[in-house]
Amino acid sequence: MSITLENLFHKQLETVSRIELFLNIYKCKEFVLSDLKEMQTDVHEAAEKLQRTKEYLETDRKYMSSQFIEIMRKMRRNEMLMLHLLEVGPHAQQPSTTNPAQQSSMVKQIPLKEIQNPSESTSKMHLSDYSKSPFTLRSKVKCMNFFDFDAIITEEQFETIPKYLKGRMQLVELNQFLEKEVIKCFEEKYTLMYKQRKVISNQHDLAVWKEYNHLQANFPEHNFITQEDLSRKMGKMLDKKSYTKIHMLRHLHILQEVRIEGTVYFLWIYNK
Length: 272
What we know:
This protein has a 3-stranded antiparallel beta sheet with strand order 1-3-2. It has helices spanning 2-27, 29-93, 100-108, 127-130, 155-159, 163-166, 171-193, 203-215, 227-234, 240-251; strands spanning 224-226, 255-260, 263-268. The longest helix is centred in the N-terminal third of the chain and has 65 residues, at 29-93. By secondary structure, it is mostly helical. It contains 10 helices and 3 strands.
């Protein structure tokens, strides 16, 4: 009870103090009115300048981000070119002991230098190059990385997702799902699908390889995975949260969902 009375007493003192301050200011109103108006004008001008500065910085950041992404793509292409040159270089210095026909065949089949530890490398290649490369004849490389599935969700894109769909999900979580589950599923699928039949000895891989090549006829012009592929990659059935993330990727035009004869397909439609 004493605490309540003490609080009421302090509140009353604060109220009296504010009233006294108001009366003191009101007495000199005519002397400070012009200054207060000037201060109000300055505040508005400062707010406008701050807003313009914020818009400029945001525009500049977007421009710099796009430049950075383009530079990284060029660096990756140059890295793959250097791998080509490293592989070709030693052959070019050795004396030729083959006939012209054999030399022509070697030139046509210039191999990429095999990545000894793919998990530690950031090198990528295009699917069209991979499908014609010696990697399809090797069973050691488990999973390749492809430029065809380069995608990252920016803050601006994330903000376009409706709040009812986004909920409390963070951008980092959605990007992790895209990179570690969806993109990896695509890369694992096409790494296996483009393998030559004769190098696949594992019966489980062979069954999946046959399934991939059979279903590809449904969308010959598109890269896609199925709901079963994604479940197999995640090691579990897709739950409500996973479906929500997929809906977000559909909203961002990264994936397109198509259903045919009970099978759910996720087509890669991202346009860089």
